Amino acid sequence: MTDQEEAYLSLLCLRNSTFRIAQLYWTYIKLRSLTGQAPPILIIMLSVLWEKQQGLHDKLVASYPDDMAAEKWHGLDEMNDRLGDMSIETQEDLQKICQTEMQVLQLVGMMMKQ
To answer: Which of 56, 61, 79, 95 could form a disulfide with 15 if both were Cys (CB 3.0 to 4.6 A apart)?
Structure first.
């Protein structure tokens, strides 16, 4: 895998992770809104997450227009198949991103129980 392909796939994974985290917060906010108990800070956090995700998307489109237009590696199976081709250092960085995503999932789960 070339450095450019590795950078593209890393950004794609980060964008998708940020999107999933934002979706979790959105679901939580919607559930809390039903009872009128949605803390305003969550809406601010969601706004920041959407901005980050959009920024990553814009960077992907600007830096890799052909790959994005072709939806290169956009499928989950395609992405997973290519992860093993990345450098060990990049794989470790992506594992940290996955761990953060799992922690956010646990946090939102705990908040939903309260």
So the answer is: 56
Q: What is the domain extent for residue 12?
A: 3-113
Contact yes or no for 48/41 (Cβ under 8 A)? no
Cα(43)–Cα(28) distance, rounded to whole angstroms?
Answer: 10
**Residue with the two structure tokens 């994005």:** 68
pLDDT digits (tens, 9 = 90+) for 8-32: 999 999 999 999 999 988 888 888 8
Structural domain count, the chain: 1
pLDDT of 94 above 80 = yes
Query: For residue 106, which amino acid is it?
Result: Q
Question: Would the pTM of this model clear 0.90, i.e. be above it?
Answer: no
Q: Give the Cα separation of 38 and 95 in Å (integer).
A: 31
Report the distance separating Cα 81 and Cα 84, nearest Å: 7
